[in-house]
């Protein structure tokens, strides 16, 4: 199998067309065929005990330990909708329609009851995490779609286990009551929450044990594997969800264990988990091929074909219907492309085969036909959907995963936005997930870290811890480059130096290009105080309020607001009056060529002027339309008034003859007023000082 994996990755054209899981199944089919040709009995390689106790746990632990917590928790509601409601819909839709088809067809299928059909639907309804991992890691889909499909495949285990055991018992008993349905719902909650509880308990035990392993670094990785496997076995003993227990154990223990163990132990855990999960995945697909050749098949065209079709139809309807509901509550909506990838990525795998293999032939005489249909569904999803999903992702231009890690700048801004949103929720009195995440972080820093992490590490701010991690990287690079003997004595305590220093340093070493800066304890403490005082902390919750529930102060009559508004209006009026000096220009003479051309442009028939009383120039306008005025009078801003002062200056004004005019101001003569006539610049600023009046006005 390992040689096949090597050859598979050495041929890039093959790996771009065929997924690795398909190739491994083909290898299993070839091995099973060779055993058959040799007339030997094929061993039952994929029996349920071997699969559930030895092959499945490493894959789930690898997924749970390296689970991206942030996107998983942000999309937890969507994942649970797909995992719980979607799996229930698939099971009842497939089982119910299969029962109807079996009753309609004139064949031996009429003997199959509704409970065995629902049992078959519960087996083939769940998305398989092994198949999803094998395919989705090769197509490098974006993080949102990956965590939605993969999270669904992990969390639907509880639903599958409960439905499987319920329908198995109901099929044996032959009767179902309302009480059985209520107990089924309660058992689902017990199975799911019990598995999570076992996993969290063993995760805390692993973290507590790793606190005391600083003197025996060799056995540090062993505790991570042992406690995880104990969580899985303990959950399986009580018929709880072992997959949920492994996920909870890996996610809970990782941050505390990595803070306590050495760098070498961390590398050991990482690569040993990857190796174990890769071996298990390889063996599962090969054994699946071998078991396909060995199995006793009972082929029924109607049942097998309708099983494949109903699996596809149920998946598409479930994803589209649930997404329609989910998008009403999501900020980042799931697009049509996302829905297609989620529906198309619902692969089935070896878990369904093992559950079918567990069925008792005495109670289920149609077991062989069920196994044949399950294998057909697995092969269709893995081969057809697994081989075509990569070209479809390229064709639809679905966003790919960003391979580069986030920079420090992105990390800082992400934390800043978390603090900001938590503060906004705090002010509004809204208990959102940012609020509860902040509460959990406070509890974790105040109590849990002090108990589970070594004392000198638990009190460090995240920035200092990150600085220590960078320092450690530089120290390792320095040792590898041959500068280990020049290391300063004050190296951070995150990793014991016995794990990175060479035992026998070379006698002649080149001087290191870069020596780590040595800080005194006092200086380091001073840096910590500066960081603690300047890093923003979200304030403690006081009285929660929002703008809809604000109560008016009975002792405040709003008088100060009125005064403030009045002062603002006076300031605005003053600014407007000051600006009028810049907005006005000297008016041209009424009989100047400019004014004549302006009148001619507006109305050619208004060229002749008629004298108007009070020596005010008037433009006579013949009625071109019912809306046109009889005449227009040109007044200057410092001209006559009818006794009351106008606040705003008036320029070119349209006014009926005989209107009131302003009296002259004291000390102002007619000649002076004629020379100082001004008009407001409405659309044309008028002729400038350096412009020639004889230039043509019209274009």
From TrEMBL:
Compositional bias (Basic and acidic residues): 665-677
Disordered: annotated span: 641-699
Location of this chain's protein in the cell: Basolateral cell membrane
GO cellular component terms, A-Z: basolateral plasma membrane
Transferase keyword on record: no
Similarity remark: Belongs to the monovalent cation:proton antiporter 1 (CPA1) transporter (TC 2.A.36) family.
Transmembrane segments: 21-39, 51-67, 79-101, 113-135, 182-206, 271-293, 299-327, 339-358, 370-393
Name the UniProt record assigns to this protein: Sodium/hydrogen exchanger
Residues covered by the Sodium/hydrogen exchanger regulatory region domain: 490-595
Annotated ranges, domain Cation/H+ exchanger transmembrane: 4-394
Major subcellular location class: membrane
Species the sequence originates in: Nothobranchius korthausae
Any GO MF annotation of the entry: calmodulin binding
NCBIfam families registered for this protein in UniProt: b_cpa1
Catalytic activity: Na(+)(in) + H(+)(out) = Na(+)(out) + H(+)(in); Li(+)(out) + H(+)(in) = Li(+)(in) + H(+)(out); Li(+)(in) + Na(+)(out) = Li(+)(out) + Na(+)(in)
Feature: compositional bias, Acidic residues: 689-699
One Pfam family this sequence matches: NEXCaM_BD
Domain of life: Eukaryota
Membrane-related topology note: Multi-pass membrane protein
């Amino acid at each position: 199998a390992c040689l096949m994996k090597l050859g598979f990755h050495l041929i890039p054209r093959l790996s771009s067309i065929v997924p690795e899981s398909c190739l491994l199944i083909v290898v299993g089919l070839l091995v099973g065929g060779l055993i058959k040709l040799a007339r030997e009995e094929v061993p039952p390689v994929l029996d349920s005990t071997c699969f559930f106790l030895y092959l499945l746990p490493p894959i789930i632990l690898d997924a749970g330990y390296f689970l991206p917590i942030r996107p998983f928790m942000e999309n937890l509601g969507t994942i649970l909708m797909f995992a719980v409601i979607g799996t229930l819909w698939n099971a009842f839709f497939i089982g119910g329609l299969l029962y109807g088809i079996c009753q309609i067809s004139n064949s031996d299928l009429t003997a199959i009851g509704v409970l065995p059909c629902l049992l078959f639907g519960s087996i083939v309804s769940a998305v398989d995490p092994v198949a999803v991992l094998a395919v989705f890691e090769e197509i490098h889909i974006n993080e949102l779609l990956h965590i939605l499909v993969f999270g669904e495949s992990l969390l639907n285990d509880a639903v599958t286990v409960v439905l499987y055991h319920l329908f198995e018992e109901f099929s044996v008993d032959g009767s179902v009551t309302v009480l059985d349905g209520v107990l089924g719902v309660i058992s689902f909650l017990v199975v799911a929450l019990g598995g999570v509880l076992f996993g969290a308990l063993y995760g805390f035990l692993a973290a507590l044990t790793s606190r005391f392993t600083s003197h025996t670094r060799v056995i540090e990785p062993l505790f991570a594997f042992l406690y995880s496997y104990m969580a899985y076995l303990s959950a399986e003993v009580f018929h709880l969800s072992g997959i949920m227990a492994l996920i909870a154990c890996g996610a809970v223990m990782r941050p505390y264990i990595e803070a306590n163990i050495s760098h070498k132990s961390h590398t050991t855990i990482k690569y040993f988990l990857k190796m174990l999960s890769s071996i298990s995945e390889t063996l599962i697909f090969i054994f699946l091929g071998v078991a396909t050749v060995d199995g006793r098949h009972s082929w029924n065209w109607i049942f097998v074909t309708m099983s494949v079709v109903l699996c596809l139809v149920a998946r598409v309807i479930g994803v589209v219907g649930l997404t329609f509901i989910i998008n009403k509550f999501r900020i980042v909506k799931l697009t049509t492309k996302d829905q297609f990838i989620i529906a198309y990525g619902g692969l089935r795998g070896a878990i369904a085969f093992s559950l079918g293999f567990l069925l008792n032939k005495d109670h289920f005489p149609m077991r062989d036909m069920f196994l044949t249909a399950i294998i057909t569904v697995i092969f269709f999803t893995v081969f057809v959907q697994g081989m075509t999903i990569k070209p479809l992702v390229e064709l639809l231009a679905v966003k790919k995963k960003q391979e580069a890690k986030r920079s420090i700048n992105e990390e800082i801004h992400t934390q800043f936005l978390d603090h900001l949103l938590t503060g906004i929720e705090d002010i509004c009195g809204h208990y959102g997930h940012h609020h509860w995440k902040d509460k959990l972080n406070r509890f974790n820093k105040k109590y849990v870290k002090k108990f589970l992490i070594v004392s000198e590490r638990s009190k460090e701010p995240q920035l200092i811890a990150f600085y220590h991690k960078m320092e450690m990287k530089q120290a390792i690079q320095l040792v590898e480059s041959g500068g280990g003997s020049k290391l300063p004595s004050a190296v951070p305590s995150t990793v014991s130096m016995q794990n990175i220093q060479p035992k026998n340093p070379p006698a002649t070493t080149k001087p290191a290009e870069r020596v780590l800066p040595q800080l005194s304890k006092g200086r380091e403490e001073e840096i910590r105080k500066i960081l603690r005082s300047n890093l923003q902390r979200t304030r403690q919750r006081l009285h929660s309020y929002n703008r809809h529930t604000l109560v008016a102060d009975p002792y405040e009559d709003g008088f100060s607001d009125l005064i403030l508004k009045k002062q603002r209006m006076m300031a605005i009026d003053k600014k407007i009056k000051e600006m009028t000096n810049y907005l006005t220009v000297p008016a041209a003479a009424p009989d100047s060529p400019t004014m004549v051309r302006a009148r001619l442009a507006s109305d050619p028939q208004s060229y002749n002027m008629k004298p108007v009383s009070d020596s005010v120039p008037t433009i006579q306008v013949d009625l071109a339309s019912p809306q046109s005025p009889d005449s227009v009078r040109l007044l200057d801003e410092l001209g006559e008034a009818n006794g009351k002062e106008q606040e705003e200056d008036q320029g070119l004004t349209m006014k009926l003859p005989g209107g009131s005019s302003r009296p002259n101001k004291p000390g102002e003569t007619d000649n002076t007023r004629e020379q100082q006539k001004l008009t407001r610049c409405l659309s044309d600023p008028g002729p400038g000082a350096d412009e020639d009046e004889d230039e043509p006005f019209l274009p």
